[in-house]
Structure formats: C-alpha cells, structure tokens
C-alpha cells in the first residue's frame, strides 16, 4: 500500500532530478568513485550512496522519485546512520575516479539542493533533510537519459547482492531503535498512537467476542433457529413446571388439613414414580406393536436384541410412559441380550417371538416415530420381520417389576 | 514509542472496559482490523525504509478500513459477503506477508 501511496507524493519532485543529475552526469560516468566526494560534502553524498546500495529496483519503486518533504523532518535522525554504513564499502573503490567526480558533481549539488530544499521545507531547520532528496533522485531519475544509466552502472555494488542489504540493515535497525527509544512527543507520533490505539481496541474487542461465542459463531442460520426453538421449548416447560410446583405449594399451605393434603400429594407422586419404576400397573391410551421374525426357523434375519432396544429407545424418545414386552416390564434399567435363534433375554427372562409391545403414550406421537423412513419399522422389515402397529384406546401394562429395597441405605429426608 | 504505547493501551482498554460494538458494525470489525493491520505493517516497512509519512499512514489506514468494510458491506448486499470477505482477507494477508518480508530483511538482513 505504501508503495502505491507514495508514488503520487513523488510527483512534486519532477523538477529536482534534472537539477541534480546534471551534476551527477559528469561525475557518474567515472562510476564508482562515490567515496571521495564524501569528505568534502558529507551531507549530500551519503544519501546517494545509501540509495545506490539498497537494491536499486525496490527503492525506486517504493520511494519513487522523491519523498514528500515531511518525511525528511521525521527521518532526519535515522539518516545519519545510513550514511555511515555505505561509506566503508565505497572507500575500497578506485580512488582515481574521485577527482573526476568531485569537482563537477559534488559541489554543485550542495549549492543547488540546499536552496531548493529550504524553499520547499521552510520549516525544517536541519540540513540532513537534503540528504534525502538526492537518494531518491538517483534511482528514479530515468528522464535524464545519460544520468540514469550512469548512476546505475556507476555503483558496482548492485551486482554483488550481499553488499546492498548491509547498509539497509543497519539503517533499518537504527531507525527502529531511534524511533522506539527516545520517546518523542511529535504530532505524527501522536496521530500514529491514536490510530494504533483504535486498532488495538478493535483487535481486543474482536478477539474477545470471537472467544466468547465460538460454538454458535460458525453455526448456520437454520441451526441457530433450531437451537433457539429448543431453548424456547425448554423455557416453556420449565415455566410450566414452576407454575405447577407453586400451585402445589399453595395448596399445601392453604389447605385446611395440611397433613391430609401432603399425604394425598405424596401418594400421587408415589403412583407416578411407581409407573416409571414399573412397580405399579398402568393403564391408558397407547399402541400395541407386534413383531414377528421371519418364518423359517433359524434363518439369518432373526429379530435381535439390539433391534428391540432401538424400538424401546425410539418409543421413549417419542414420549412412551410405560412399556412391557411379552409380560416383561421395561424400565430404565432394563437390559436386552440375544439368547437364541428366536428369543431374546430381557432382564434375564427369555422372551420368544412374536414380541408384543404394549406401550402407553400418545399414539399420534408414537406411531410416526416408529414409521419414519429409515426408522425402526423399516429396519426390521429389511430383516424380513413383520411389524404391525395398532393404536388402542386402552392399553394395560400390568407386568410388574419387583421393588428393590436397598439393604442399608435409608431415605435421609 | 508513543505509537507502541497507544497500541498497548488500546488492547488493554479493549480487554478491561469490554466495550460493546454496535450490532450494525459487528460484521465489519474483523475485516477492518485486518485492513488496519495491513496499514500498520506497511507503515512499519516505510519507516524502516526511511520514507514514513504520517499523513500517508493516516490516509492509508483509514481508507483501508473503509474500503474493506465497504467491500464486505457490498458483498453482504449481493449475497456473496462470505466469499468477498475471504477474498479481502487473502489479499490483505498477502500484503501483510510481503511487508513483513521487507521488514524482516531490514531488521534481520535475511
């Protein structure tokens, strides 16, 4: 982004390059002699070298022809470091060319550039500013035909890739260190701080909100709707229960004979629990299911325990309240096992075909639950079993389960 | 330095105060954050190159954020919000990587 942003900024510079180059042209042809010029006019030359040593293509692209004057003020501190690194590498180069360069190139640039820069940046007090302009100009100076090629060719460093990075390395690090350590309270620092503050804020908010609801965040809309519905249902059920319990409480408190009322409620509760536990016979509307295995005895597709278990689970999920199979009451702890070709052990008692389920519950709920595609009935029919389901107004579940009394545990309430 | 302090202060503030983002802006926040990160990396690179300019930074930061949010908004309106935001993240990610590579070259010379 910055690259692109800064290119426009460069446009103001167009005038500069021509001025700077003429000077360079004479000196440049000699090529490498940048080092000598330094001593006389340290400010100007250093920038040049630096620019050359950086990878030329990248520089020209990023920085463009020139940077806006403002940069200069900001970057003045960092620049000094830049100069130094470039110098050492250049010194080794042929000294003979130095003289050539010096007279034409160096002396002019200082004179010309200084006035110019000052005009542009009246506010800037420091001379280092000038260093900047020269640097960009060199790479970005394609217009003057001779100069540009000369400049490029002049620095022999580019061919050797290792050389360029060093100066930039030092410069970059130093610039970083400069900008970090002595904290300066400048306008740009404050503005940047403000924007970074906003960024940090957004980052923190986003991270926090992402961490919070990660389970729901990725869910699809339909799933979210379903979850919401379920929550609503659950809320409704809990509300109902709360209401019921409050009614109960009110009855207990207001009834004239509180003991009688309490006994009545307890008995009701006991009956309710008895039906669930299978210790009490139950009667009510429901369905009767008859499952017959395939006719040929010993055939492969016999109805097995797991199918019965699936049936029970399906019935329970659909709201069955009491179930018995061929005289065995099915409760929470009931277990199924295959015991032979045509029979199944339920709670340790052998039950033979046909299996007759008596189920108390809402027939309208139970029947579809068994008949859903891919459901229990279909699965059993695939095994050549025949299944018939008949709704009944009255189903008697009278098989009982022996009540198990704990030997040691006593109710604590 | 002050800039770093600003970043830290922002993060701390976001974690401590836990401000609530208006629901309307919520979808744009993540993409805006990524765009802003891109701007910050670009600025860091420019600083190392010695061409940092606060005005350029401010403009690029804000325009990045706005354009990214705009693209997501437009994508939502066109029904391709998810794909477009993926595209934006990919592009910004590539730029962040290239800027990070330049920064790395400066700092580690490698």
From TrEMBL, chain B:
Keywords: Cell membrane, Membrane, Transmembrane, Transmembrane helix
Lipoprotein keyword on record: no
Protein's membrane topology: Multi-pass membrane protein
Localization in the cell: Cell membrane
Residues annotated as transmembrane: 29-48, 55-74, 80-98
Ranges in a coiled coil: none
Organism superkingdom: Bacteria
Primary subcellular site in the record, as a coarse category: membrane
InterPro entries for this protein: DUF1290 (IPR009709)
UniProt similarity note: Belongs to the sbp family.
Protein name, per record: Small basic family protein
High-level lineage: Bacteria, Bacillati, Actinomycetota, Actinomycetes, Kitasatosporales
């Amino acid at each position: 982004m910055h690259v692109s942003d800064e290119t426009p900024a460069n446009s103001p510079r167009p005038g500069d390059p021509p001025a700077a180059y003429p000077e360079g042209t004479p000196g440049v042809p000699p090529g490498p002699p940048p080092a000598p010029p330094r001593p006389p006019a340290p400010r100007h030359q250093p920038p040049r070298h630096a620019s050359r040593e950086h990878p030329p293509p990248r520089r020209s692209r990023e920085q463009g022809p020139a940077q806006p004057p403002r940069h200069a003020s900001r970057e003045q501190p960092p620049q000094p470091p830049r100069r130094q690194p470039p110098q050492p590498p250049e010194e080794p180069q042929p000294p003979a060319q130095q003289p050539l360069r010096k007279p034409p190139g160096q002396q002019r640039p200082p004179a010309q550039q200084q006035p110019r820069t000052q005009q542009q940046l009246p506010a800037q007090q420091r001379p280092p500013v000038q260093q900047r302009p020269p640097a960009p100009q060199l790479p970005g100076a394609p217009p003057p035909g001779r100069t540009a090629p000369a400049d490029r060719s002049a620095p022999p460093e580019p061919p050797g890739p290792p050389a360029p990075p060093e100066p930039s390395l030092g410069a970059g690090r130093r610039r970083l260190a400069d900008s970090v350590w002595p904290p300066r309270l400048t306008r740009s620092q404050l503005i940047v701080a403000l924007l970074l503050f906003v960024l940090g804020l957004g980052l923190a908010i986003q991270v926090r909100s992402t961490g919070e609801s990660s389970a729901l965040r990725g869910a699809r809309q339909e799933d979210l709707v379903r979850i919401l519905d379920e929550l609503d249902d659950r809320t409704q059920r809990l509300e109902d229960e709360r209401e019921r319990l409050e009614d109960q409480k009110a009855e207990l408190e207001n009834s004239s004979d509180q003991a009688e009322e309490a006994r009545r409620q307890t008995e009701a509760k006991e009956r309710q629990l008895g039906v669930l536990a299978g210790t009490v016979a139950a009667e009510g509307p429901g369905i009767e299911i008859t499952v017959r295995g395939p006719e040929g005895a010993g055939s492969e597709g016999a109805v097995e325990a797991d199918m019965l278990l699936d049936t029970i689970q399906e019935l329970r999920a659909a709201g069955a309240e009491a179930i018995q199979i061929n005289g065995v009451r099915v409760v929470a702890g009931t277990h199924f096992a295959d015991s032979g070709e045509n029979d199944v052990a339920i709670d340790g008692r052998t039950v033979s075909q046909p299996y007759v389920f008596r189920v108390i519950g809402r027939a309208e709920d139970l029947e579809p639950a068994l008949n859903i595609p891919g459901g229990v009935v279909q699965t059993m029919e695939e095994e050549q079993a025949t299944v018939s389901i008949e709704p009944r107004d009255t189903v008697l579940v009278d098989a009982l389960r022996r009540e198990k009394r704990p030997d040691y545990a006593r109710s604590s309430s | 330095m002050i800039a770093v302090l600003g970043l830290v202060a922002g993060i701390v503030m976001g974690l401590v105060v836990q401000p609530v983002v208006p629901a309307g802006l919520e979808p744009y926040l993540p993409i805006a954050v990524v765009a802003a990160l891109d701007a910050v990396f670009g600025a860091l690179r420019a600083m190392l190159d010695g061409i940092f300019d606060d005005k350029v930074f401010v403009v690029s930061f804000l325009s990045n954020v706005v354009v990214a949010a705009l693209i997501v908004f437009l994508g939502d309106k066109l029904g391709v919000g998810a794909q477009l935001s993926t595209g934006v993240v990919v592009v910004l990610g590539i730029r962040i990587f290239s800027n990070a590579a330049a920064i790395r070259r400066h700092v580690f010379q490698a």
